[in-house]
User: What shape does this take?
Amino acid sequence: LAVARRAEQHWNPPIAFPTARMTLCRRQKEKPATEPTWKLVMPRNRRSIWIASLSVLAATTFARQASAEDKVIPIAEVKRDTPVDFEKEVLPLMKRNCVACHNATKAESGLVLETPQSIIKGGDSGPAVVPMKSAESLLLGRATGSVDSLMPPSGNKVAAKALTPQELGLIKLWIDQGAGGIVTGQSGEIKWQSLPPGVNPIYAVAVTPDGQYAACGRANQIFVYHLPTGRFVCRLTDPELLKSGIYNQPGVADLDLIQSLAFSQDGMLLASGGYRDIKIWQRPRDVRLANFDTAAADGAQTIAVSADGKWLATAAADNSIKLWDLSTGQPARSLAGHTAAVHALRFSPDGTKLVSGSLDKSIRIWQVADGAPAGRIDTPQPVQALAVLGAGERIASGG
Assistant: This one.
């Protein structure tokens, strides 16, 4: 995580320039006689802070064998003297059945199946392949269903199919030959493009607790307004996007669509969430103080900031909640308990508790200090919105 402070930059007038991203901002306490300026509090780190989801191909235990009722796919015997070409023969099988969930951009459980080197390295459960030892290779065990559950599973969202006995035999032979090979047709570079002018959805709006300012996410831009006068204040700019050359004019806050916005209790910070990362903006200078990158799989569509500006809460794709320390930009703890997606997060006014609402028809209360559960309320409908009332003695929910 990089941390940097930049020289003061005042925001330019609005420019019709569509685009998207996530961030936090700080507001000056004086009345807006002139247009306030905002600064982005953390620099963009191109390396994402990955929030691991459950693996499809990596098993939590290598020792557990399939039970008698599990269907194990037999491995056909493939005999040949010539070496198996990974790029021409094995990689196409991986792309059809495995790479959708295990690629360099979306690496479930840290496993990438795009090169021999990344396959041998493996993921959270260790190496996926042991060269010249197919019987000890987790990749082959999961693909046959002889070790843990069969992968890819039936009914998966990407329509991946189980490998045939002949395909398994080819992979087995490749492993026993040493699991070598190179990939020449891949370029690791991602070529970003600006969003087209017609893309302008509004997915997020936030208002400061004192009712003075509103932030609106339109495509990948963030617009700030002064509510008492109805005056447009500014459009937030991430300086790194200007440096990248993707955009050549200010007013762009993110590469992605802005999915969520949240002000701190004192209105001095604004958090914005895109599909891949979270940004923190602070007044009065256009300086990015902090930037959180999340996995594409997780996103950051539900966020909350504590009143003291110390904590950021985000909902993860695995139904857990991540607490981030805003002073360091690092994840502090993970809160697990919900069995469905979390769609609402709110801190108590004193910042000691976090309230979460989920599609599993429950509201849960957590201790911020240690992440311990502090209460649960079952609801008749899935929870889509939350509000903490008064000093925190009451909670309102909407579904």
Remarks:
- Confidence is low (pLDDT under 50) at residues 1-34, 43-69.
- Residues 39-50+197-398 form a domain with the Methylamine Dehydrogenase; Chain H fold (CATH 2.130.10.10).
- The two ends are 37 Å apart (CA to CA).
- Helices lie at 86-97, 116-121, 138-144, 165-176, 239-244.
